[in-house]
From TrEMBL:
UniProt-recorded name of the protein: Cellulose synthase A catalytic subunit 1 [UDP-forming]-like
Active site: D151, D463
Entry-linked SUPFAM superfamilies: Nucleotide-diphospho-sugar transferases
A molecular function (GO) term: cellulose synthase (UDP-forming) activity
Annotated Mn(2+) binding sites: K278, D302
Length: 751
């Protein structure tokens, strides 16, 4: 009878869905209506601009070159807007039912990849917190294998891992026993205390002491060894080690409970070999884990992205184990949510439009992008066609994957995903030696790693480009954004980090957009859907925003000073077109902000940072990509700083911009502000004297708008005296620059 019941339940559970997809109908209708109206308005605008060239009574007051420039800027903006609509065509949200998954024995194994690169920028204790949170996932521990890639090859990290493992032997049983939701120890012990007593409270205290001790030991070792000159992050041999219990004492703690496998991987690096940054590190992890645990699924995490909810693995499996979608499903992506962003988010670092709108929109097409972290990826998807087709000829496989027999053997077993790791096979020294070979520089010579298989090397935004190639091969992905953040990371909270990161992203993205892989062209001949390709194209081309941003920040203002009108007269029909375009884009943005549950304040931040980033990182990123293309520069990946700096944090919490950033970032920002001030004062004075208003209303408004959006910069220039204010020399330099531009402009207009 019992058996019968159980059988009945299992049959039922396989027929009821483990996930649901909800179409956001209202959002879709509003978006499509907006697309229609906005496009019609754009057609009128284009007509207005274009008719200038054909009109008999051409306004000779306006130089054709200036008109063309403004027109070009508007066209670029309209083009990117149009591409952007693809990700708003069909927006969905998803829900999962992990309780409907099969029993634990049937769950597939998971390899967790954590990457760290620089122990000075990435505090060891924080990296270990990420590792610990991953080890503590609510999943059968024998099916979790955590690999940490250490690109800095630092003994501090290795020491940290040993200590973390010892602490995990206390931490994991404690998490399981009390079913903790927050399994990142730093977050758990950092949360506000509630009144607790009894066994739980005393055990919590005991574990807290262990955690403090762990922290202390790691930090002490770090202080003693961090600056060690014998460690060279750029040149070192491979080091691979399986981390084990330090002592019998710790071993006793877990009793019969299994512990996840924990492996330290530091690949070989030599200055003469390109190491391809994070993508290179991930490919080494793919190979090393390939000969150790070879799990069919991979959880990718940045070293600062800890697991904030132990159920993410089960949630992801709701999709991966669905026979209907699984065969073509490459990965399940969760959003990147940041733990350290203040209420007013002055640097707009939460990436709202990406994680709250675009990814949901792409999910309605062929799926969201891989976002570098917080994803559950199917290993097979990265192994390309040969493995997918089940080619077992070792010679063919070696031509693609390199000469390791052990690795090839495991590839041939790929089609049997539920197989567990061979008992203790990863312990033999033979496997470790093989792994070191797989982690050596020359292993990838004349193989297809980074080109056809694994994470792609073509661009520094390896996540973007890798998922683009996956979608081109016909793979799909899904996006899951549940109410409780499954992962939490460190967002950028100062201007310098924000702009350095933004420059890297712009450079990597536009590099793809301007190459033969441009999604608009390359996408056509592959299996990617048209709308999905357009959404990818938008992401690879949006750095071109620097063109309209510079034009709108400079040209109308220079013209205003000289009384040259660039826009229609107030209340003329074409004026209404411009007014409509402004209102339509603004109200759509505001609608999306509210729809995604954010406050109106976000709008100001987003507008502000659109300008700030466009005139700095988008421009520098584009220049960087072009210089790389013509061979003047090499690719680079400066990891983002993750160390909390007290003084910076204080400014951030107070909502004040920190202008301690290189002059190359500050001068464009300050220069545009000064120019707009000049233009506003000069232009309005002139209008008062000459007595025309109607033609310059739009230009005057534009300057007022730019200046009000730039308020923090003005404040930093004139009203603040603290360390984070705009250095006076920057203001002086920028002013000199503006005067030079004005002088040049005078000559240009008078000839
Ligand atoms: O040579 C390198 C450089 C970086 N990393 C690691 O890559 C991760 C991401 O680097 P981070 O400095 O945090 O850059 P972000 O700009 O914050 O990262 C975003 O952008 C990257 C692409 O530029 C993606 O890979 C990331 O997942 C995404 O979070 C970190 O764990 C680093 O340790 C390496 O392993 N090797
Ligand atoms: Mn990061």
């Amino acid at each position: 009878m019992v058996q019968f019941l159980r059988k009945g339940r299992m049959e039922a559970s396989s027929s009821i869905p483990r996930h649901l997809c909800h179409l956001n109908l209202l959002f879709m209708l509003i978006s499509r209506a907006h697309m229609l109206l906005h496009s019609i308005a754009l057609v009128f605008l284009i007509h207005y601009r274009a008719s200038f060239f054909f009109s008999e009574t051409q306004n000779h007051q306006i130089p054709t070159s200036i008109w063309s420039l403004v027109f070009a800027a508007e066209l670029v903006l309209a083009f990117i807007w149009a591409l952007n609509q693809a990700a708003r065509w069909k927006t969905v949200t998803r829900k999962v039912f992990p309780e409907r998954l099969p029993e634990d024995e049937k769950l597939p194994a998971i390899d967790v990849f954590v990457c760290t690169a620089d122990p000075t920028k990435e505090p060891t204790v924080d990296v270990m917190n990420t590792v610990l949170s991953a080890m503590a996932l609510d999943y059968p521990p024998e099916k979790i294998h955590v690999y940490l890639s250490d690109d800095g090859s630092s003994p501090v990290t290795l020491f940290g891992m040993r200590e973390a493992y010892a602490f995990a032997m206390w931490w994991l049983p404690f998490c399981r026993k009390y079913g903790l939701k927050t399994r990142c120890p730093k977050a758990y012990f950092g949360a506000p205390e509630e009144e607790e007593n009894g066994e739980y409270a005393s055990e919590k205290q005991k574990i807290r002491d262990k955690y403090e001790l762990f922290k202390e030991r790691v930090n002490k070792f770090r202080d003693q060894n961090l600056g060690d000159p014998s460690i060279n992050g750029r040149s070192h041999s491979p080091v691979i080690g399986v981390i084990r219990a330090n002592s019998q004492d710790d071993e006793g703690q877990t009793g019969q409970l299994a512990m996840p496998l924990l492996v330290y991987v530091s690949r070989e690096k030599r200055p003469s070999y390109p190491h391809h940054f994070k993508a290179g590190a991930l490919n080494v992890l793919l190979r090393v884990s390939g000969v150790m645990s070879n799990s069919p699924y991979i959880l990718g995490l940045d070293c600062d992205m800890y697991s904030n909810d132990p159920s993410s693995a089960r949630q992801a499996m709701c999709f991966h184990l669905d026979p209907k979608i699984s065969p073509s499903l490459a990965f399940v992506q969760f959003p990147q949510i940041f733990r350290n962003i203040s209420e007013n988010d002055i640097y707009d670092s939460k990436l709202r439009s990406v994680f709250w709108v675009c990814w949901h929109g792409m999910d309605g097409l062929q799926g969201p992008l891989l976002s570098g972290t917080c994803y559950y990826l199917k290993r097979e998807a990265l192994y390309g066609k040969l493995v997918q087709d089940g080619t077992y000829d070792p010679m063919d496989l070696k031509a693609v994957f390199g000469g390791s027999n052990e690795f090839i053997k495991r590839l041939q077993q790929m089609k049997r995903p539920y197989e567990n790791r061979g008992t203790d096979c990863w312990e033999t020294s033979m496997v470790l030696r093989e792994a070191e070979d797989l982690a050596s520089c020359r292993y990838e010579d004349s193989t297809k790693w980074g080109k056809e298989v694994g994470f792609m090397y073509f661009s520094v935004v390896e996540d973007y480009f890798t998922s683009f190639t996956l979608h081109c091969k016909g793979w799909a992905s899904v996006y899951l954004n549940p109410p409780r953040p499954q992962f939490l990371g460190t967002g950028t909270t100062n201007l310098n980090d924000l702009l350095v990161q933004g420059t890297r992203w712009s450079s990597g993205l536009i590099e793809v957009g301007l190459s033969r892989f441009c999604p608009l062209i390359y996408g056509l001949s592959t299996k990617i859907s048209i709308l999905e390709a357009l959404a990818y194209a938008e992401l690879s081309l949006f750095p071109l925003y620097f063109i309209p941003a510079w034009c709108f920040g400079v040209i109308p203002q220079l013209c205003l000073l000289h009384g040259i009108p660039l826009y229609p007269k107030v209340l003329s029909p074409y004026f209404l077109v411009f007014l409509f375009i402004f209102l339509s884009s603004t109200s759509k943005q505001v609608y999306e902000i509210i729809w995604s549950g954010h406050s109106l304040h976000t709008w100001v931040n987003e507008r502000r940072h659109w300008m700030i980033k466009s005139v700095t990182c988008h421009m520098y990123g584009s220049m960087d990509a072009i210089m790389k293309k013509i061979g003047l520069r090499e690719a680079s990946f400066l990891p983002t700083n993750k160390v909390d700096d007290d003084e910076q944090t204080k400014l951030y919490e107070m909502g004040l911009f920190d202008f301690q950033a290189p002059a190359m970032f500050l001068i464009p920002l300050v220069g545009i502000v000064i120019l707009n001030m000049f233009a506003l004062v000069g232009g309005v004075t002139r209008a008062l004297l000459v007595g025309y208003w109607e033609e310059i209303v739009v230009q005057t408004f534009l300057s007022i708008f730019i200046l009000s959006v730039s308020y923090p910069i003005i404040e930093g220039m004139f009203l603040r005296k603290d360390k984070g204010s705009v250095p006076p020399r920057i203001t002086v330099f920028s002013a000199i620059g503006v005067v030079a531009v004005l002088a040049f402009w005078n000559i240009f207009v008078s000839v």
